[in-house]
Design brief:
alpha/beta, Rossmann fold, 4-stranded parallel β-sheet, 45% helix, 20% strand
């Protein structure tokens, strides 16, 4: 891993651009943001149009000569390539430039490794990192070219050290996968326990640095780390939240998404992202002040769809955040969106920092949890006090009649509450 604990590492950032790349400035801004998230000292940024990727070094010889000149003149210690490059390309780049090279996957993994604070987060990151290491042993270990000799019982004479390293990584990966399965199982049990408490789950999702944690803090009166940098939140957090109508809910803050998120991380964080899949309502938080908020929103949409979530469903609410950062012209558009959101209740325009629009958002949540309200009748076992108490707390009870064993209860409740009740207590309404 990179050593960022002492002197800042002088870094050259290179952004390979394909011909269809829309806005090089936005790509550069995110690349620099990733480096700053790891406390790297960005000395220079180069955007390079790539017409043909070199099989050996990714870049053309002319580009490499230009990098070499910058590295020598500005005493660069690290080259960050804002793309996924192959292990052999990384090795040949390091050999030609004579400095350390890290690609987009490697840098994001470094950020996650530095930020993980819970046992679950550390296991998830460690698993992803070891899978990444295994794919590029050509550079991840300092002793790769050694030959192992002697009468070792682990490997025969002459066995390459890389094979032993790969075997050791396989053992570690299997161990971590088992640990993650235990966490997944525990998380499933915790989820079932929460379901029995009957509280609706509201999950926050969005592009990294969209303001999810700031919104989470103000709605749940919490103090989760909220900072203007990429991946400020890594470990998932859940807190209770009470809506204006007195209904209790649970809000979940999740890791931010980013374009070209490493596949190793998507797989490792599947247990965490299950909270989003199981949520009753998903708040997609958009940074409306970002120049590329449209493409950021598309990245989140694609990620949710990869998780099997219907992005067009009614239980997704779009929260357009950071309106306090808009210019006067953009403010006109924000006002238009505010008026529109009050009509269709599928969106809200807010400033999590100043509190503007939060009442509208809370009203939208109340509305969505009551959406599709109808009157239903249930036959409940008179001894099932939890089910009866749930209906009294989460529905409007119109009438109730008891006999010796059965309570016949007539209630009005919304689709979300109906789904929650039938799922948790296994009672279906009478037809």
């Amino acid at each position: 891993m990179l050593d960022t604990s002492t002197i800042k590492t002088a870094t050259l950032v290179v952004c390979p651009l394909l011909r269809e790349e829309a806005n090089p400035a936005l790509v550069e801004e995110e690349a620099v943001g990733l480096c700053h998230a790891l406390n790297l000292d960005v000395i220079d940024v180069q955007s390079i149009v790539i017409r043909k990727i070199s099989a050996a070094t990714y870049f053309s010889k002319g580009h490499l000569e230009n990098f070499k000149q910058i590295i020598d003149e500005k005493e660069i210690d690290l080259l960050y390539v804002d793309a996924h490059i192959k292990p052999g390309q990384q090795r040949d780049l390091e050999k030609f430039l004579n400095i350390k090279v890290v690609d987009r996957t490697g840098l994001i993994l470094e950020i996650f490794a530095e930020r993980a604070s819970t046992q679950e987060g550390r296991i998830q990151v460690d698993l992803a990192y070891k899978k990444y290491q295994k794919s590029r042993l050509v550079r991840a270990w300092t002793h790769l070219e050694r030959q192992r000799g002697g009468a070792s019982t682990v490997g025969g004479p002459g066995e390459k050290q890389t094979e032993l390293d790969r075997r050791a990584l396989d053992v570690e990966i299997k161990r971590l996968e088992k640990d993650l399965e235990k966490i997944k199982s525990n998380r499933s049990l915790q989820r079932k326990a929460r379901e029995k408490e009957s509280f609706p789950i509201i999950a926050l999702v969005g592009y990294t640095n969209a303001g999810k944690s700031t919104l989470f803090n103000i709605l749940t009166h919490s103090k989760v780390l909220s900072k203007d940098m990429l991946f400020a939140t890594l470990d998932p957090t859940m807190r209770a939240m009470e809506l204006p109508n007195g209904q209790k809910t649970i809000m979940s803050d999740t890791v931010g998404f980013i374009r070209n998120l490493p596949t190793e991380l998507v797989a490792a964080f599947s247990a965490t992202l299950e909270e989003v899949v199981e949520a009753d309502i998903i708040l997609h938080v958009h940074d409306i002040s970002a120049d590329d908020h449209m493409s950021q929103g598309l990245t989140v949409k694609n990620t949710l769809e990869d998780l099997g979530i219907d992005y067009g469903s009614d239980h997704i609410i779009h929260v357009y955040n950071k309106i306090d950062l808009l210019t006067i012209m953009d403010e006109i558009e924000a006002s238009r969106l505010e008026k529109l959101s009050r009509k269709d209740a599928s969106s809200a325009v807010v400033s999590a920092r100043t509190g503007r629009g939060l009442n509208d958002l809370l009203s939208t949540l109340v509305y969505h949890l009551a959406l599709g309200q109808n009157t239903y009748e249930f036959h409940i076992n008179s001894s099932d006090g939890k089910a009866l108490a749930w209906l009294h707390a989460n529905a409007t009870v119109n009438d109730i009649a008891y006999d010796e064993k059965i309570a016949t209860i007539n209630v009005t409740l919304g689709d979300a509450a109906l789904n929650k009740f039938t799922k948790v207590f296994n009672y279906n309404p009478l037809l």
